[in-house]
Amino acid sequence: MSTLSDVAALAGVSISAVSRVLSNAPSSRVSGATRTRIEDAARELNYHPNFAARALKFSRTNVVALVVPDLTNAIFSELMRGVEETAAELGYMVLLARAESMQPAAATMARLVGEGRVDGVLVQVGDNTTTEDLAGILDGRVPAVLINSRREDHVGSVILPDEAGVAVAVDHLVRLGHTSIGLVNGLPTTDSAVRRRVGFESAMAAAGLPVNPDFVTSLGYDPQQGRRAMHVLGALPNGPTALVVANVNAALGLLVESRTLGIQVPGDLSIVAIHDAWTAENAWPPLTTVRMPLYELGRVSMAAIFDRIRSEEIDDIVVTEPGPELIVRLSTAAR
Amino acid sequence: MSTLSDVAALAGVSISAVSRVLSNAPSSRVSGATRTRIEDAARELNYHPNFAARALKFSRTNVVALVVPDLTNAIFSELMRGVEETAAELGYMVLLARAESMQPAAATMARLVGEGRVDGVLVQVGDNTTTEDLAGILDGRVPAVLINSRREDHVGSVILPDEAGVAVAVDHLVRLGHTSIGLVNGLPTTDSAVRRRVGFESAMAAAGLPVNPDFVTSLGYDPQQGRRAMHVLGALPNGPTALVVANVNAALGLLVESRTLGIQVPGDLSIVAIHDAWTAENAWPPLTTVRMPLYELGRVSMAAIFDRIRSEEIDDIVVTEPGPELIVRLSTAAR
DNA sequence: CCGCGTTGCTCAATCGTTTGATCAATCGCT
DNA sequence: AGCGATTGATCAAACGATTGAGCAACGCGG
Fold first, then answer.
1. Which domains does chain A have, with CATH numbers?
2. Which helix (H) or strand (E) holds A318?
3. Which nucleotides of strand C lie under 7 Å from a protein CB?
4. Is the confidence at residue A1, as pLDDT, over 90?
5. Strand D: protein residues, Cβ closer than 7 A
6. Would you call A98 an interface residue with chain B, using a CB distance cutoff of 8 Å?
7. Distant-in-sequence, close-in-space partners of A264: CB < 8 Å, separation ≥ 6
């Protein structure tokens, strides 16, 4: 790891000259001869500017943290790709952080920012995270953007068109002739679950169908809760003939429980899940899903935190392009 | 974000005093009075030492990069947990990086270290990681530990007891009365696939069973390749009655293809997959798996890179404790 | 040939932290 | 009281990069 002085010594000039040449300062006033001498020296020594030194000088690291509840959630794959690609375009790096339980995560984030390791934070909160835990980080001193959830007391969020997504799912089922449709939702404390519930009710109303409260569960987005939901709904004497499952992972668990209960999918019960992932096409039956614009969610979120860092300006954004896309597989059938 | 000078000013002392008190230097020689004054001031200002400044001073960041081919692979969940927990114990942070987003990977890793962003690199090589991608770390200038693979030209690796894992799977199938057993393996270029193949052959030999080359595929670890493998094996006139699938993700794809082909699992075909993950118990039928010590793999890997960074000493290690553990679910049945 | 503008480079301060060297004040001992 | 040892603090030099200010050399017009 060579430094500016090493390069300067080799090229026989001062470190200032080297710095100016290598950072391509427009006002650099350097002769062509020294310029090439410096560039050659830098190449020979394989010079890379020291990250810590620059960060110290600029009090800026060009790093943002992306905090997600579970990195191995296939759903986040596209989100991360969007964030990372946009970050790279903007000259940023992404520090990926798991936040399984938020207590230590909040502390970790506070450290991350307090120690100046990152310039901003993108937070995707999960099922078992109340945004309360994040209060410390969201007090406005730290550039932060909430992904997939909103808070009254914090401006700066990017969310998905959840209502529209659920509407696409409901429409598909209605078109197939279903009238008795249930919703397997996330926890009511989750912001996205609230929006999905609203979307469900509007879509049902628009189709002229009643919402049976017994057909709506709000247990959570993970497979275990999907199982529980199926268990609850399966025990109903006259259950729904179709379900909108607000999360593909929950749908996987639900599918297993349906088999245990001897319920045929899609014969007895049609299922359409929100979010597409590789697990959906490798389930049996392969799941009909609504693909949400997660890649774009990532892109927009990164762009938003960038703006926030540079200009202090930030909005609450809904990603609308592209809209939710129905992917028909084998878990839905006509009634 | 307050600095040492802020704290010093508030406490009415020099920054040296503050630094010594807050870093708990044993030779600090500070009076109890000033000590508490400084500590109070630090707390009041919510002081956190600046990361960049310390990194610059120590030319050490206490960060290691963990490079994995695909973050959303459920298998890596435990691995990451092991790495992160051990890192935390050793005072390190983990910079998670997707290999996919590091194009070209060699250059990105070189930059990571060249710019002094990380002190070392943990690399989990995937199916499509090329030797070229690793070029930067093989010359030994960068502290690096290979996870799950070994190379002649690089010392510093931690691997799983792959042979033993496959043996556990084979034993289970043999005990169930199977004699016609196949192997759905990873690419022959993958180091772990080679070891699993060896383990398969030894285990079969130990059971006094012949290995039918037609029953062995080496297409890859992902679901798509699992499907292809099933397609190939399903076309055989007298196929195997049981399969060891070297990766749980491949097994998921294989399972779907088996349904498409009308092959009953476990009626016509028993399946045991290497690696346990939440997807295994949420498949249908729930997959019998061999749980490998991935958490410990993470712990040992982190410990190894730590040693390498501190002392330049490094070994090639096999994680043996705990051994592979059979988890019986519903994808295997007696013959 | 003097003064002025320009060119091409170097000096030196700065970011925040650590730490050996230094120094003033106090203490213990005779 | 005198003097060395100890205590409790500060000074200042790094770490590596950036950048405004400064300075020597040169060209050129008058």
1. 4-49 (1.10.260), 59-159+294-318 (3.40.50.2300), 162-292 (3.40.50.2300)
2. strand A316-318
3. 7-12, 14-21
4. no
5. A 3-5, 15-16, 19-20, 22-23, 25, 47-50, 53-54, 56-58; B 13-17, 20, 29-31, 33-35, 53, 56-57, 59
6. yes
7. A258
B75: Cβ under 7 Å from strand C?
no
Q: How far apart are CA B85 and CA B94, in angstroms?
A: 10
d(Cα B113, Cα B109) in Å, to the nearest integer?
Answer: 6
For B98-110, what is each residue's pLDDT tens digit? Answer: 877 676 677 778 7
Q: What is the structure's pLDDT at B105?
A: 72
The span from the CA of B7 to the CA of A23, in Å, is 34
> What are the backbone dihedrals phi and psi of residue A331, each rounded to the nearest 5 degrees, phi first?
-95, 5
Q: Does residue A38 surpass a pLDDT of 70?
A: yes
**DSSP bridge pairs for B242:** B181, B270
- Give the gap in angstroms from C-alpha B236 to the nearest C-alpha of chain A: 23
Give the count of Cβ contacts less than 8 A between chain A and B.
124
How far apart (Å, rounded) are the C-alpha atoms in residues A221 and A149? Answer: 15
Structure tokens given for B158: 């931690």
Q: Is it the case that residue A161 has pLDDT exceeding 90?
A: yes
**ipTM score assigned to the predicted complex:** 0.87
Whose tokens are 């970790």? That residue is A108
* Residue B254 host element (H or E): helix B248-260
SS3 A270: strand
Burial bucket for residue A54 (CB in 10 Å: 0-12, 13-18, 19+) = middle
State both tokens at A39: 């560039």
Give one word for B260, left, alpha or beta, with left for phi > 0 and alpha for psi -120 to 50: alpha
Using the Cα atoms of residue B1, residue B6, residue B8 and residue B10 in order, give the sign of their dihedral. negative
Is B258's Cβ below 8 Å from some Cβ in A? no
Question: Stated in angstroms, how far is A5 CA from D23 C1'?
Answer: 22
Q: Among candidates B111, B131, B135, B109, which has minimal Cα distance to B122?
A: B109
